[in-house]
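This part of the workshop introduces the protein records we will be handling. To make this concrete, we reproduce a full record directly below:
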Amino acid sequence: MRHKHRVSMVDIAKASGVSAATVSRVLSNQDNVSDEVKELVLSSVERLGYVRNLGAATLAASKSNTVGLLVRDMSNQFYGAVASKVQEKTDKAGYDLLMATGGDSEGSQMRAARNLLGHGIGGMIIVSGRISPDVMSYVARFVPIVVLAAGIDIPSVSSVRIDPKCEADLASRVVDMGHKCVAVTASSDPLASTLHSRTSIFLTELIIRGVKTVIMPIEDNDLCSIQKQVDLALSEHVTAIMAGSDTIALSILECLHSKGISCPKDVSVTGFDGVGCLATSLLGLTTVKQPVDLLAKNAVDVMEKYFNDKQTGISRIIVKGDFIHGSTLSDLNK
């Protein structure tokens, strides 16, 4: 296939009967151009199929209005939903967005971060519960960053996350329902800061309330690992299992179903996130809904302040989640 000649600003200028400098001012949304000229230039842009070279634009300007978005895994319900909302917010704010997936290893995260930095971004939003602290520190040397939904904070990085009180409240509700022996899932991944923090909060609240706890270490939602840990939890006579995410909770529900164990009649299960198809009332999962729209808005708002030189310090923003009672948590007090 033969590709079309890439249209330049010079081509747009010739077609519009104006200078290339005028075309540049129109495309940069500068005010010192008449409405008639703007309409003429934009008409030529549309007709000729001009695509702006963002790299060149960044070099020509002293400042970049491009946001880099580093996402752990777009196929994950939660991360995909947040990334979609971040794009919606950056579009509304008039910023360009470049996206890359970082995965779960420090090496892949560093490669993705360097790729985004290499494209001249002005700042980075990181959406990952497994981001390496070294990657965060590296990026912060070059551009301002906001980490969304991570379980750790570092001094040079702004963050937006769910209020930990929501996690403690979920554990408290399980206890209030009369459950005296509760299993809590735990991740074996050393970078899983969000799950580590959530597990710690669950366990702390349960122990304070005098509940017997069983830790279920699983290997990144691996089915065999989950089946083994469910068997061990059942042998301890748990009446409820608290999963670190809705995805893990669903795998546990499938495992219980395969064993002929009813939920919540025999064993209750709770999740966390309340996003996407797993939030459907048909599944009825008892969970905490993370407000992805608000999380994304706060992250983009902080980045916008950095871009406009209205913020030089570090922000720590927490947002409230909503408890969804669902039908997978039984009341043993009845």
